[in-house]
Design a protein that fits this description.
The protein has 283 residues and is α/β, with parallel strands linked by helices. The protein is built from nine helices and eleven strands. The protein folds into two domains: 57 residues, S-adenosyl-L-methionine-dependent methyltransferases, CATH 3.40.1630; 193 residues, Rossmann fold (3-Layer(aba) Sandwich). The structure holds S-adenosylmethionine (SAM).
């Protein structure tokens, strides 16, 4: 694939039972269903495990699946450090308060899941249709795994999944509609408009060329999503709709979103959380 052309993505299915789902997704995404074994860059394949994004073998990238019941998420949930984690402190989670979070850049839901596992209700937005499909499938399977009757399920997982919701669309238009509703509500004291306690933003950032450690999965994710050059535009409206704060996740050493200095930052080894504080947290 030439560097500047769009990847060829097709929908596929492992066995005939998945054919109807594959055809429905193909129609929604305006993509063909794959019939031969060549001529694609990525397959969105329905499998027994769930919906998988499979790069063509020549790429050397890893496959992507969203698996909230899997070992990586379970380990983070049990041994990740709870409210002591930088993301928890940045968002303002404590034993007494778990904010309602609007995650404008859901991706594969990793940060949303961590926040939900700490007790936050998280409304996620994702605009990339392929990423949205993977996350949507992961949320559905995560909920099923939590509620599984025969294996007695996992009540904690079911509760976490119940705190996560997902919408497909652009954060910029969602925010501008919310700003408009809030302005209208100011003139009408009867009107009730939901607003998030915290707005969370984690835009794509160019992969560091020298980083051999970048997971193979991340390479495929970056190839599908690209960068988010419009991310700066989200900050002003995010600050208008958030009740208490806006948190922006950046790679360590990166500039500030919209070149706007936060009130403070929490630094990790490879990640930084910039906190734009609007009001003291309630507790
Ligand atoms: C770096 S990833 C987020 C990773 C996520 N925090 C996680 O833990 O999995 C950024 C994601 O935000 C999405 N995104 C970026 N800008 C957006 C926007 N304006 N509206 C909706 N989604 C957006 C991208 O498509 C991408 O999937």
């Amino acid at each position: 694939m030439p560097a500047d052309s769009l990847p060829i993505i097709r929908v596929a299915y492992e066995s005939g039972v998945f054919k109807p789902q594959a055809e429905a997704l193909a129609e929604k995404l305006c993509m063909p269903v794959q019939v031969d074994t060549e001529g694609y860059d990525y397959l969105l394949e329905f499998t027994e495990q769930g919906l998988v994004l499979r790069p063509s073998p020549d790429k050397g990238y890893g496959s992507i699946i969203c698996d909230f019941a899997g070992s990586e998420h379970s380990h983070r949930r049990r041994h990740g450090g709870g409210n002591g984690q930088a993301i928890a402190k940045a968002v303002g989670v404590s034993g007494k308060f778990a904010p309602q979070v609007l995650d404008l850049t859901a991706g594969l839901g990793g940060d949303g899941f961590v926040l939900a596992s700490l007790g936050c209700r998280v409304s996620m937005l994702e605009r990339n249709p392929v990423v949205h499909s993977l996350l949507d499938d992961g949320l559905r399977r995560g909920l099923e795994a939590g509620q599984e009757e025969f294996t007695q399920g996992d009540d904690e997982l079911a509760a976490i999944m119940g705190r996560l919701s997902l919408n497909e669309g652009s954060a910029a238009s969602y925010l501008s509609q919310l700003v408009e509703s809030l302005i209208k509500a100011e003139a009408d004291p009867q009107a009730e408009v939901w607003r998030p306690d915290v707005v969370y933003v984690d835009p794509m950032f160019p992969l560091r060329k020298k980083s051999a450690k970048v997971k193979k999965q991340m390479q495929a994710f970056h190839a599908i999503v690209g960068n988010d050059p419009d991310a700066d535009q989200l900050l002003a409206d995010a600050l208008t709709v958030a009740r208490y704060r806006v948190v922006v996740k950046r790679p360590a050493g990166a500039g500030f979103l919209a070149e706007s200095k936060p009130n403070y930052s929490l630094e990790g080894k490879s990640t930084r959380y910039d906190v734009y504080a609007l009001k003291k947290l309630p507790i």
